[in-house]
Amino acid sequence: MRARVLIRPKAGILDPQGQTVERALPALGFEGASNVHVGRLVELDIDDLSQLDAMCERLLTNPLIEDYEIQLPQGESASEPAPTIQ
Amino acid sequence: MKIGVVRFPGSCDEVDALQAAERVGDAELLWYADHDLRGADAVIIPGGFSYGDYLRVGAIARFAPVMEEVERFARCGGPVLGICNGFQVLCEAGLLPGALLPNTSLRFLCRQVGVTVASVDTAWTRECTPGERLSIPVKHTTGRYYAPEPVLDELEANGQLVFRYAPGENPNGSARDIAGVSNKGGNVVGLMPHPEHAVDALTGSEDGIALFRSVVGAAAALAA
């Protein structure tokens, strides 16, 4: 099964990458983009979806500073509901 | 008295740490893939780019075989020092509180900074005087210390804020000017500045040797 893990900086933690991108957009003439954040994407094939949350908690993310969201092909679900984004 | 210095794939400051340690006692490199601290009385996790900083700084190194032994050693009160990437590894391993985030400038910084010793109740600062100012270099891209506010309050109340950047010298946006912290027991310390690069007047400062001298006394006290 193909799965995607979207990882983003936790809300409230200063995200200088997001800020830099946000400032660059108007410089190129793109107006009206705000609240820009830059995160990471991990894609993986996984046999046992029930392990994915544990993988996220132990290695793929640092729960102190990052939130994650699991995306699966339509109709599939991990055994535990994926955490929602703040 | 022997100080073990861990070498991971991608470490780059382990030889400087080894040579700094040799100024105060015996020292030996420890191989990341071994379950063996070779009888070391203290352990240093050095700076560098362990595992290429893949995924997150320190995230992969913290699962290296030698780290199981380091964790056991630390939990038994053994002195452990994480420098720069080593600090990041110890935070990822849960041996130290908090995490290191990219510098607010998003730039790699390499400069001498003033660092104040905020706690002398640790294995690595017991030879310092409270408030002593050390001149030590930093060189990192991911050195902005972060912990949630309640955790910062707790660390401050417990005396676990060990090093602070001198006023006006915070190079990376660290919370409360924090340059280094300890665990509750004071045996595990991590800091972003590099004391191992400041042990000889040739490179501008000898202030960093204080940490190495401190652990000699700490190890002797443990052995007694």
Could you outline the blueprint of secondary structure elements for this entry?
The complex is a heterodimer of chains A (86) and B (224).
Chain A: E1 2-9, H1 16-27, E2 40-45, H2 52-60, E3 66-71
Antiparallel strand pairs in A: 1-2, 1-3
Chain B: E1 2-7, H1 14-22, E2 26-31, E3 42-45, H2 65-75, E4 80-83, H3 85-92, E5 99-101, E6 109-117, E7 133-140, E8 144-146, H4 149-158, E9 161-165, E10 178-182, E11 188-191, H5 209-223
Parallel strand pairs in B: 1-2, 1-3, 3-4, 4-11
Antiparallel strand pairs in B: 5-8, 6-7, 6-9, 9-10, 10-11
The count of domains of chain A is 1
Could you give the count of β-strands of chain B? 11
Task: Give the biggest beta sheet of chain A.
Answer: 3 strands, antiparallel
The residue ranges of chain B in which pLDDT falls below 50 over 5 or more consecutive positions are none
Order of helices and strands of chain B: EHEEHEHEEEEHEEEH
What best-fitting shape of chain B do the alpha-carbon axes yield?
Answer: globular
Name of the CATH class of chain B: Alpha Beta
Roughly how many Å is the radius of gyration of chain B?
Answer: 15 Å
Percent range for β-strand residues of chain A: 15-25%
Radius of gyration of chain A, in angstroms, nearest whole number: 15 Å
Low-confidence stretches of chain A: none
CATH architectural grouping of chain B: 3-Layer(aba) Sandwich
Question: What gap, in angstroms, lies between the N and C termini of chain B?
Answer: 12 Å
Helix content of chain B: 10-25%
**Beta-strand percent range of chain B:** 25-35%
